[in-house]
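Tutorial handout. Part one gives the primary structure; part two gives the three-dimensional structure as tokens.
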Amino acid sequence: MWQLSARAREAGNQAALGFTIVNETQSLIPYRQAAWWRAGGALPGAIAAVSGLPQCDPGAPYVQWLTSVSRALARQQVPQDAADNTQAQPHAFTVSDLPVELAADWASWWPAHALWLPLIDTRKRMQSAIVFAREEPFNPTEKILLAELAQVWAHALHAFEPQASALARVTGALRQGKLRRRVLIALAMACLAPVPMSVLAPAEVTAKDPFVVRSPLDGVIDQLNVQPNQHVAVGAPLFSLDATTLASRDALARKNYAAAQEEYRQTAQLAVTDDKNRLDMALKKGKLDESAVELDYAAAQLARLHVTASRDGVAVFADPNDWIGRAVSVGEKVMLLADPSHVELTAYLPVAENVDVKPGATMTLYPKSSPLVSYDARIDTIAYRAEPTPDGVLAYRIKASFTSNARPVLGVMGTARVHGRWVPLAYYLLRRPLATVRQWLGW
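Part two.
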């Protein structure tokens, strides 16, 4: 028995173990024939090894008859209670215990007495069985020895079974009725548990009510007098436009004014003695007034080339090198003057992530530069129309005011969590998949 147990542990695979069981067990228990029946995922199963044969042929008549006998015995041994241990005991049977159609061929294949030895796995299920046949009945001592060997063989066969996946283990644990019902009830309650709907959106801290500094004229920016994020006071120079064109116009206007003034003076002198020149004096006067207006306009335009700050603030614009030498038109934005203490949160909510956010909802900013800090804000306005962001994503622009005194500095970027209404957990988890399926199916 010790040797048979050692051979079972040394077997390299199920085929080697089955050959050992049906052939070498005769050194402990005498018998004439033995067969190993291996169950499938569910009964009936098939014969896997027969004593005296190196390989089992499923098409042989004897093997087919053994398969039918084993299936009939396996159906008789299926317990009603998983905790019933009587199925693990050896069971002696004779021709009278088989169905009529199988009993008719008993004398052709087997001697008078046979023993059914089930191999039970750790889950109390019959994984396979051994059938022994001989002329004499099996005594109680032999049954005890075979029952002990059955446990060794069942343990060895279990080692060759593929390991069950985590899903299979969970499914097996849920097969018990009471536990399964409890788990399903807990899952149903969890799916119905209300959770706040929230989505993530890129966000940036921007100036609130900034002053837009625009180009007063068509021209080319010649010089920037401030640097990005520089604090400026009222009247401080900001930038200047190129004066070449306007200076030429001003010089030409001055010359035209001087010429018109000289013509008017000469006409006025001749008008004292000549009536004809007295009539031309009114025309010369009109031309002089026109030249004066052109001169004043050129001087005014020349004075507007130098733009100054109309209020205190921080200059907000990009790299100065991007503006110097750049042609601008009237009203084109060049920079902003913002109050560093007067900021707001601007978020860009993608169209696919819109959760019907309303003004008054809350947002939380998580700055990229400060992973341990967050700022709460309340939504003021939401754009009704989606616009493309610099990244090329259609998104709704959201403006929000910070609710606490601690506020981030201007220009901080991060991710904002937009909080929506309360929804069931199942809807929160399946919202995106359902939206994708609905768009794909068209319903």
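Part three, for discussion. The chain has eleven helices and 20 strands. Confidence is low (pLDDT under 50) at residues 79-84.
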